[in-house]
Specification:
single chain, about 110 residues, two-stranded antiparallel sheet, 4 helices, about 40% helix, helicase activity
């Protein structure tokens, strides 16, 4: 991470509101993914709501979150773009991050 990204992450983990803006390619998505990862591991009993301006932006976030050490059963994606996401679970089965996918995951246990 760049020094500016590190400051943004540090600021975001504190109290108050931090707004991260910048032109395309400056690492806003990577900063957001790191924040979600930190929140997920530091506050496991809490829920985090991510809101984006487009389905494409949310899919980019989910694409990166799926590659981290975040349990897929803790991710729920709402909106019209969830069918654009495709991934496999640990058993190489197709997994959906929408309401139906979450229900299927719970019933399979």
């Amino acid at each position: 991470f760049t020094p500016a990204q590190t400051r943004a992450i540090h600021s975001s983990m504190g109290e108050g509101l931090t707004v991260i803006v910048g032109p395309p390619g400056t690492g806003k998505t990577d900063v957001a993914v790191q924040l979600v990862r930190l929140l997920y591991h530091n506050y496991p009993e809490q829920r985090t709501l991510l809101i984006t301006h487009s389905n494409q932006a949310l899919n980019q976030l989910f694409g990166k979150l799926m590659n981290l050490d975040i349990n897929g059963c803790h991710l729920l994606r709402l909106g019209h773009g969830e069918n654009d996401l495709s991934t496999k679970d640990t058993n190489n089965q197709s997994f959906k991050y929408n309401q139906v996918g979450r229900l299927d995951f719970i019933l399979a246990r």
